[in-house]
Amino acid sequence: MTRTDVSLFRWDDMKKERVNDMLERRLITGDRMMLAHVYLKKGCIVPKHSHENEQLTYILEGALKFWIGADRSEEVIVRAGEVLHIPSNVPHEALALEDTLDVDIFNPPRQDWLDGTDSYFHRTK
Question: N or C: more exposed end of the chain, with fewer CB within 10 A?
Answer without folding.
Answer: N
